[in-house]
Design the sequence.
């Protein structure tokens, strides 16, 4: 079977994704995560915590929640139903770091967790830093001109 035949074969048998309902689920889940962040911000401010500390506490709380839910296996169940909605940057990134660590913990701290912890998130870090550097150079050029 050549490439064209295989592509046709796989397209015929591939389950069609319900795009509209997937978009709605992703929107609702992502919105819920963002709403939770706003509620945390409001709650921390109501407790009289300084604005600078609130700016640190909200992401830390969201990261902790994502890591805890990942460790308990709940985050993956939510992601299975809501797809991209769980990829709100801070929670999705936390899950991307924790998941490989959990999967490879039986291989040991060095060859398992240490070697594989950034398997998924590594490219995100690399290209995030690269795009930030490129943006910084473009910004500098525009400011100079």
Sequence:
């Amino acid at each position: 079977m050549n490439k064209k035949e295989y592509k046709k074969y796989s397209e015929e048998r591939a389950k069609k994704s319900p795009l509209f309902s997937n978009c709605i689920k992703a929107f609702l889940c992502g919105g819920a995560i963002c709403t939770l962040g706003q509620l945390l911000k409001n709650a921390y401010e109501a407790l009289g915590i300084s604005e600078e500390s609130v700016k640190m506490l909200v992401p830390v709380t969201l990261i902790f929640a994502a890591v805890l839910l990942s460790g308990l296996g709940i985050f993956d169940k939510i992601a299975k139903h809501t797809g991209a909605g769980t990829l709100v940057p801070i929670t999705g990134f936390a899950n991307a770091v924790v998941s490989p660590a959990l999967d490879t913990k039986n291989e040991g701290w060095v060859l398992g967790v240490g070697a594989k912890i950034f398997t998924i998130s590594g490219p995100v870090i690399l290209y995030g830093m690269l795009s930030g550097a490129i943006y910084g150079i473009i910004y500098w050029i525009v400011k100079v001109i």
Remarks:
- The longest helix spans residues 19-46.
- Helices lie at 3-13, 19-46, 51-71, 74-82, 89-103, 109-116, 121-144.
- The mean pLDDT is 87.
